[in-house]
């Protein structure tokens, strides 16, 4: 589900690809668009769970000392 654009500005932060896809998933989900709920409420209901888990794993890998050799998880 990663989105690549030629005219997209570069974000140098860690896990920026997953962060952008996670944000887009939440904001475009029917829970937010049609029902008018907050994205935090939709997260508690379990929407976009796979991207939430991937984003968590990427952020956690930043703290892991083994990631110096393996590299960060994510894209």
From TrEMBL:
GO cellular component: mitochondrion
Pfam families the UniProt entry points to: Pet191_N
One annotated GO biological process: mitochondrial respiratory chain complex IV assembly
Record's keyword terms, sorted: Disulfide bond
InterPro entries xref list: Cyt_c_oxidase_assmbl_Pet191 (IPR018793)
Membrane-spanning segments: none
Functional description taken from the UniProt entry: Involved in an early step of the mitochondrial complex IV assembly process.
Family: Belongs to the PET191 family.
Name assigned to this protein: Cytochrome c oxidase assembly factor 5
